[in-house]
Amino acid sequence: MTENWIAPSILSADFARLGEEVDNVLAAGADVVHFDVMDNHFVPNLTIGPLVCSALRKHGVTAPIDVHLMIEPVDRIIPDFIEAGASYITFHPEGSVHIDRTLQMIRDAGCKAGLVFNPGTPLHHLDHVMDRLDMILLMSVNPGFGGQSFIPSALDKLREVRKKIDASGHDIRLEIDGGVKIDNIREIKAAGADTFVAGSAIFGKGDYKAIIDEMRSEMAKA
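Predicted structure:
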């Protein structure tokens, strides 16, 4: 049974105090640091790059850093994130001309690799690369901005991907990102997710531990 991970998205953190924010959310019970990279090209926003990832490692963050590349093309920047200390690197199939090669490049460097699917992206890209994947990330909002509402059709997509993972026999995490909150995390878990990205639902809400504890108690009911 895969352990359930809560992965706060630092996109919603206070960037002036980023190291402290990450320390606090991990101390409150989070498992993974979710790192949203946007290029103002593939998505309509510009966020952070490898230097910030490296700075968190130098600050002393030892938890897994889960880097989600919402950029195009991806191959040029991947080595920089590996050097900066990324644990997982996920990218969108639209961001790579050769998906299999990009996945292999990540794994050859000792990093875990994954694919990301937008709400409207079909899942056929999974058909020939399941043996190359450590994570599949489903977007339950259209990427580019934090604080959006969960798109309900993501639940059906989760169930479909959960079946694919179980049938493959491979150890692949199933991550969900977008609009995850205390009041919907139970049904998201029931649909098959085991890794939960939450940004605005955690950061900026004061008591991180209380929120994470409540999320875990909701998941336990699924």
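Summary: The chain has a mean pLDDT of 96.
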